[in-house]
Here is the input.
Amino acid sequence: MRSSVLFLLVVFALVFGTFFFRMRIEDDSRRADEEKLRVLSKQARRVRQFLEHGGIESAGADMIRQFGAMSEDPTLRIALLVSANCNVLAANPPELVALSAAEALRRSGESPALAAEIPDARKPGGTRASIESDRAIVLSPVQIPGRPVILAVRSVAETRAAVRRDVSSQTAALALIFLALIAALWTWLEVALNRRIRRLVDAAARFAVDDLEARARLGGNDELALAGRAFDAMADSVAQTRMRLLESEARVRLLLDSTAEGLCGLDLSGRITFCNPAALRLLHVAHPGQLLGSAFYDLLRLPGSEQTLDKAWVDLALQTRARVEQELSLPCPDGTVLAVHHSGGPVLLQGVLVGRVVTLTDLTGKKRAEEELRKSQAQLRMADRLATVGTLSAGVAHEINNPLAYTLANLGYVAERLRELPGTPDCAEVVTAVEEATEGAERVRRIVKDMKTLSRVDDETIGAVDVERALDASVNMALHELRHKATVMKDYAGVGFARANEGRLVQVFLNLLVNAAQAIATTQPDHNEVRIATCLDAEGRVAVEISDTGAGIPEDVLPRIFDPFFTTKPLGVGTGLGLSICHSLITAVGGHIEVASKVGVGTRFLIILPSVAQEPAGAAVRPAA
Ligand SMILES: Nc1ncnc2c1ncn2[C@@H]1O[C@H](COP(=O)(O)OP(=O)(O)OP(=O)(O)O)[C@@H](O)[C@H]1O
Ligand SMILES: [Mg+2]
Here is the structure.
C-alpha cells in the first residue's frame, strides 16, 4: 500500500515535471525571442532616427554604437545599411562596407536570400521584424533620400540556451522540493502510521497465540485509533470469556482429578479418548499418553475368567443407550487381579450416540471390609460360645466339688482301713490303686478350684493377690497345652502380693501361657521353653515375665496384637480377644503390659502390677483351698 502510494507519487512527479518543463521552455523561449526582437527593433529604430536627423555621414559609427561591437555581443550576427542598389553603406562589422548586401550576408554566414527581401522593405509599411529559425531579423527603411534599409540580424540561440538552463535549474529545484516532500511523507507513513499499524498487528498476533494481556492501546482519534480501540474492546471481551472458560475447565478438571473412581471417555469403537488420574492409578499407567487410543475393554475380564471380554458383550456395552453396570476383574502387571465395578453411560450429542463415559471403582476395600465383617461375626459367635462354656464350667466346677469332697474323704477312709487290714499279697496293689485314685481325685480338685477362680464372674474385687500362686494356678490349667510343647521353667523371686483381682489375673496369665504354647509348632518339649519369672522392679512394683521360644511375632503384626478380634490363628482356634482382654484387665488395676518379640527367636510379655507392700487385713483375696 505504502509502496504503491509512493510509486504513484513518483510517476505523477515525472509526468508533471516533463509537462511543466516543456511548457516553461516553450513559454520562456518565446518570451526571450520576442524580447530579443523588441530590442533589435529598438536598436534599428534609434539608428534610423539618428540617420534621419544627422544624415548618413555618421551611419557607420551609429551602427556600431547602437548595435554594439560584435566582439562585446556575439549574438549580433550582422547590421547593415543597404542602399537602393543593394550596396552596403555602413556595417557592423565595418569591413562589410562597400560590399553588395548578398556578399556581405554570405561573408557573415547568413543566407544571401535575405538580400532579396530588402527591396520589399522600401515599400510603404515595409518594416519587418521576425524570428526565423534561431535568428531575429529586422528590416527597417530609413526616410532619407535614397531610402536605404537597415538590416539587422541577431542570434537567439544563446538566449534560448540560457532559458533552457534557467528552466532546467528551476525544474531541478522543484524536483528536489518534491523529493523532500516525498521523503517527509515517507517518514510520516513510517513513523506515525506504520508504527501504530505494527502495534495493532503485533497485539493481534500475540493475542492469537494466547497472550490474553495483548492490547494495541493506540492514542488519537483517527481511523486507526478507532480500529485499535475496537480491537482492544474485542480482546477484553474475548479474554473475559476465556478466563471464565478456563475457570470452569479448572473446576471440571479438579472434579475429575479428585474423584476416587477411575473415569474414562470412550469413542464408539471403545478406544479411550480421555481419563482421570484415578483411572491411571487403577490401570497402573504413569501417563495418559500410554492409555489414550487403546481399546478399553481389552484391559478387563469377566470375574474368574482369564479370557478377554466377549466381542458381542463389548459391542452391546458400547452401542446401547442404557447404563451398563457389571462387576469385572482387572489383571494387574504384578499378576494380581483387582475386582472392579464397571459403570458405563452413553454420551449423546443432539440425540446422537457419540461415545461413552465409564467409571471403574476398586472393590478391594469393600471386599476386604465384607470379609472382615464376616470374620468378626464368626469370632463374635465363637466368643459367645466361649462365654457360655465359661459360665457352664463355673457351674460344672461347683457341681463337681461336692461329689469330689466325699470321693476324697471316702478314698482317705479306704486307705486308712486298708492299712489296718492284715497284709495279703494283693493288699499292696490295692493300696497303690487307692493312692493313685486319691492323687487323681486331688488333681481334679485343684483343677476345679482353679476353674472356679477363673470363672468367678460375679467377683470383681480388687485386692492383694498372691501373684506366684496365681501363676501356678494358670500353669496347672494350661498344662495340657504346654506339656507336649515345651519345658516350663519357673523363676520366682517371691514377690508377694499385687493389687489385682485374682480371677482376672489368672485369666491374663492363662491366655499368655496358651498363646506361648500355640506359638511353638513342634511337639518336642526338650527343645522349647516357656519361662515364667517374677521380680520387683526399681519402684517396688511386681513384674511378671512370660517368655517363650516360639515362632515370634512379625514386625507388621506386633502393633495390632492388642486390638480386639485381631488373630492370626485359624477360625475356631483363636478369637483374637485374649490380649485385648489382658490389656484392659491389667490397665484397669493400674498396671501395664509390654511385649517384645523376634521372629524365629521367641516372644516375651512383661506385666507390671502395683504391689501391696503389706497384705491389708481382710483385703487379700486368696483362692479358696
Ligand atoms: N507368644 C506369642 N507368640 C507368637 N504370637 C503371639 C503370641 N502371643 C500372641 N501372639 C499373636 O497375637 C495374636 C493375638 O493374640 P490373642 O491372644 O489376642 O488372640 P488369639 O490367641 O489369636 O485368640 P484367643 O486368645 O482369643 O483365643 C495371636 O493371634 C498371635 O498371632
Ligand atoms: Mg490368645
Remarks:
- The two ends are 124 Å apart (CA to CA).
